[in-house]
Amino acid sequence: MVMASGLILSELASLSVLVACSLVMLNPLIWTLINRFEYKTHAISRLCRGPRAGTTVWASLIMGMNVFRTSVFHYMAVKGTKLHFFEANVGATTAGYLIIVLGVSLVLSTHWRLGFFGSFYGDCFGILLHAKVTEFPYNILDHPMYWGSFMIHFGGAIVCASAVGFLLSLAIGLSYAMVAVVEAPLTAEIYAAKKA
């Protein structure tokens, strides 16, 4: 048990895990910086000859970054040291899959409520929703897409019984929490300008 704990700790402190942690945390931070840049300069909209085209290009890049992040997460979670408690535990595996399903339902219902342009930061490009969305899933928590994504990765860590997966999912959750704090004032500023 002590040897296994030492192996897990040395793996969590390895360079490859630290790089993977940085990579999975970068996605939301990059989005936030580029969203602010676009809102202030409209450079992407001008480059793409309009806000709808700009948002579509930006959405494609976000989706590509998400595929890359999920690939890094999956590779590290599958190849990493297994946590024996979770590895052969049917209850834990079932709970992991349930968490994934709940996360997917939050992400998909958020996309449904916001639509394509709302989901991919169209507000930073000048494409605004008519009113603040307050129906499910927004009536149960703020930033449901972020927390749904975190739950998908956390559930995946449980299913893979992966110490690295847990660390990476917590890194994803932390980056979403930081972005949520920064994003809220920008969204308020965008919609306050709409009312003015």
Report on this model:
α2 (15-41) runs antiparallel to α4 (51-79), α6 packs antiparallel against α7 (144-160) and α7 (144-160) packs antiparallel against α8 (163-195). The chain is mainly α and 196 residues long. The model has no long low-confidence stretch (mean pLDDT 88). It has helices at 2-12, 15-41, 43-47, 51-79, 84-87, 90-119, 144-160, 163-195. The chain has one domain (2-195).
Which terms summarize this structure?
196 residues; single chain; mainly alpha; globular
* Major β-sheet profile: none
Please count the beta strands (DSSP E, at least 2 residues each). 0
Question: How many domains comprise the coordinates?
Answer: 1
Radius of gyration (CA) equals 19 Å
Strand content: under 5%
The percent range for helix content is over 70%
SSE sequence, one letter per element: HHHHHHHH
Poorly predicted sequence stretches spanning 5 or more consecutive residues: none
Give the mean pLDDT: 88
Give me the number of helical elements.
8
Shape: globular
**Measured distance between first and last alpha carbons:** 63 Å
